[in-house]
Automatic annotation (TrEMBL):
<protein>
    <submittedName>
        <fullName>PiggyBac transposable element-derived protein 4</fullName>
    </submittedName>
</protein>
<feature type="domain" description="PiggyBac transposable element-derived protein">
    <location>
        <begin position="1"/>
        <end position="133"/>
    </location>
</feature>
<dbReference type="Pfam" id="PF13843">
    <property type="entry name" value="DDE_Tnp_1_7"/>
</dbReference>
<dbReference type="InterPro" id="IPR029526">
    <property type="entry name" value="PGBD"/>
</dbReference>
């Protein structure tokens, strides 16, 4: 594929319809990719049921563009980017659940609003696994 063709594909690749999206979305920062992210996470969950050995990890997707919720983590190789919290299988690293951090507007589970940031992120990721062994 040539550079021009690749540029055209990237220019016209959209995951959301601009005309039909509502402005009442509670997290405007992710409105363009929310449906796609939810679809991918749903597929991850349908393929694999995690065993007792799981871990929650913080990941950083390298990004150097302009973004209001871009994070700086000096310990990571790519220091600037988009921060994700992921629930993974300990042995293989298979991602079972994922949460994109967008600052104050991060979509945590409402049941955990009384907890601190770290606790909220972990409890939101493992919410569906509670009581399953």
């Amino acid at each position: 594929m040539g550079e021009v063709r690749y540029g055209l594909l990237m220019k016209f690749l959209h995951f959301a319809n601009n005309e039909s999206s509502s402005d009442l979305d509670h997290n405007m920062k992710l409105k363009k990719i929310r449906e796609f992210h939810n679809l991918v996470v749903h597929k991850f969950k349908s393929v694999y049921v995690p065993k007792p050995d799981i871990s929650v990890d913080e990941s950083l997707i390298a990004y150097k563009g302009r973004l209001s919720w871009k994070q700086y983590i000096p310990q990571k190789r790519a220091r600037f980017g988009i921060k994700l919290f992921q629930l993974c299988k300990s042995e293989s690293g298979y991602i079972w659940n994922s949460l994109i951090y967008t600052g104050k507007g991060t979509a945590f589970n409402e049941n955990y609003n009384d907890y601190g940031f770290s606790t909220k992120s972990v409890l939101t990721l493992i919410h569906e696994l509670k009581g399953k062994g």
